[in-house]
Every structure is written in structure tokens, then in C-alpha cells.
Amino acid sequence: MPEMKDARLLVGFETSDDGAVFQIREDYALIQTLDFFTPIVDDPYDFGAIAAANALSDVYAMGGKPLTAMSIVCFPYKDLPVSLLAQISKGGAETILQADALVIGGHSVSDSEIKFGYAVTGHIHPDHIWRNHTPNLGDSLVLSKPLGTGLLTTAVKQNHLPETVLETPIREMKRLNQVACDLARNFTIHAATDITGFGLLGHLYEMIRIRNFGVKLRVQSLPLFEGVWQAIESKCLTRAHTTNFAYISPYPISANAAFDAYRSILLDPQTSGGLLFALPKDQAEILVKNLNNQDHTAAVIGEITQNPGFDFE
């Protein structure tokens, strides 16, 4: 692709940020992002709601507020009833409305496999953008949602765990990251991102690689969904567990007992996961307390270190 250079383009795709930011005036910029995927759950309404929350999350990960969304639809019109798509769209639209944003259109194509999501536009002050790759040395890391959606949805699809194990994960995947974003704006956020398909380590890699920092993770502090260990015992891994490990392979990994025990969790691809914040150590526990007072399951999970690489304890 030709190089995209424009003084108004404040954030492009060079640093794998969660969205692009385009400045409209001195005090106003637009965030643009999109996300769509195949069904992760069986219920069409829940799938639409999760797809919407997942697409909106990129705006929240940059500290912004959503404005509008346009749906992206791939649907086998000849094989499945349109009423199914109506339920998917309803779940998505009602979630967009929860974010005080509007669905203003979209586009669909006939496809043998269902895919659904949104292109989202948000807004932010140019001085208040959270980037994903700008942590400070010594920052603590706060995660706002539990991990394990990839493992659990795979375990249910393979009939290793009952569908009831997905009740809490589905509720969390449908939950907007709006409250977490709003609370975090009261703190000194040096870097932020959301945890999605690259897993915790993949998104951490994007956070630390440009500044050539490292990270020390306290694996026993990771918030996890119930049933994750049973899914691991049943070997319910996804293809992304392999590709996510390959993605972070340029960085040194301390393959100790802690990593070996939590490897499947650390590499697990998430859908509509939590926000990950890097902020001063003396603010981290207060942010966690504020999040958990709002019915989150947040935790301080580690810190940014000097030497490049991943360490686990």
C-alpha cells in the first residue's frame, strides 16, 4: 500500500493501535475502527450483541466515545431464514444504543458462512488519546475482565462442558467497556488496549515492543472465568493458540513453571475482552477497587519492566 501521510491523521495502522484517529479541528478528532467475525455463541441475539460490544470496544480502548455504527453482514440468504439475521441485528442495534450511539446503515453480501459486526466511528479530544504502545517503565497493569472465552466456547462446541458454563462469559462479552473507560479517565493512563483475538500476551506484545520494554506477569492474579481449567484439561485449544504464540515469538519468553501452567490462558483468543491499562503503580489498586465496585472482575496482573521479554511469577 502507498504510505498514508497527512498531518490530520493522528493515529494510523503502523503501531497496531485499536483504531485510527483523524483530526477534524483543534479540539475534536474522530476514531474509526471495524470488527466482524463468525458466530461465537448459538443464540443469534447474543451473537449480535457480542459483535457490537466487541466493535465498540476499540473506541473505548482509545479513551473515546462512540457516535455511529454501520453493520457489516455476510449471510447465507438461500439457506437460512432472514428472521435469524433480524435477531442478530436486533442484538447488535440494542447494544449500540446502550452506548449512546446510532446504527446508521450498513452493507450485506450473500455468503455461505454467517459473519457480522460493525464499522464504528467515535470521537475524542486530540490531547486525550490513549495509545496502545506508550507505557512507562514501572507502570502497573490492570485488566478489567476475566480471561478464558476462547477456551470455554471451544469446550462447549466440542461437548466437553455444558452450555451453562457460558452464562457468565456471555454476560461479560455483551458488557460494554464503557464504564471501565469512564472510570479510567480519572487516572493517569499511559497506555491502553483491549484484549481480543491475539490473547493477553499478543496485546501485551503490542504494548511493549516499540519501547523495547518487558513485562512481568503475576499469573495467579489473572481473573479467570469458571470452567477454564476444565477446558484446558480437555485440551480445548483453538488454532489461535498456535498463531498467537508465533506472533509473540520475536520477544524472549521465560518459559518457567508459571508460564507452562498458564500458557493456554495467556495465549487464549478473547472475544469482547476487557480493557488493559498501564498506569502508575500508586493508582492501580484504586482503579481496580473502583472497577470492582461497578461489578467488574478487575485485577492488577503485573508491571512494565526494563529488559525486553515476558517474565512470569
Beta strands, count = 12
Compute the number of helices: 10
Which consecutive residue ranges, at least 5 long each, have pLDDT under 50? none
CATH architecture of the largest domain: Alpha-Beta Complex
Q: What name does the CATH topology of the largest domain carry? A: Phosphoribosyl-aminoimidazole Synthetase, Chain A, domain 2
**What is the SS-derived class?**
alpha+beta
Strand arrangement within the widest β-sheet reads: 1-2-3-6-4-5
What summary fits the major beta sheet?
Answer: 6 strands, mixed
User: How many individual domains?
Assistant: 2
**Strand-residue fraction?**
15-25%
Q: C-alpha Rg, in Å?
A: 19 Å
CATH class type of the largest domain: Alpha Beta
What is the helix/strand order?
EEEHEHEEEHHHEHEHHHEHEE
Q: Shape from CA axes?
A: globular
Report the CATH superfamily of the largest domain.
PurM-like C-terminal domain
